[in-house]
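[agent] plan:
  1. take the single chain provided in the ticket
  2. run structure prediction with default settings
  3. attach structure tokens to the ticket
  4. add a short note for the reviewer (M.T.)
[agent] executing step 1
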Amino acid sequence: MTKHEIMIEYVKEKVAELTNAILTFNYAGDVPFSISFLTNYSGKVLKKYLRAADKEYGFVILITWPYSMESDDLNIQAMNFAQEFMDWIDDQNKTRHFPDFGTNCQINRIESLQNMPDLATVDMENHLAQYQIPCRVVYFEYERR
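[agent] step 2 finished; step 3 output follows
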């Protein structure tokens, strides 16, 4: 399996737990209650060693949610939902429950790169908002021989 496939499997269970949305890969749809896994980079070298390197895998979780221009609590529900996913990422790091990148990789941490989700876009016409959670996995990888 590729790192992309591993990461999708890693987050899929949490997505199913939070909502019955379908998780998409590198596609940000305009369907309410959808969650997208968007890649930023894979194998970005942080520090090079003789036959190994510290690397990172960057990704964004993008949550599409209904948006309200009223005084109801729909927008705060969306922010709280996104925050719950972000908290889960942080908990995975604390408990050292990492994705498995294989025998030549040692995961050092998984982390969200901000302390709260971003309101990325608002589509007033369709009453939708997208919240993004930028994340990364930092790992040590040996070169294969």
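[agent] step 4 note for reviewer: The longest helix spans residues 74-94.
[agent] ticket updated
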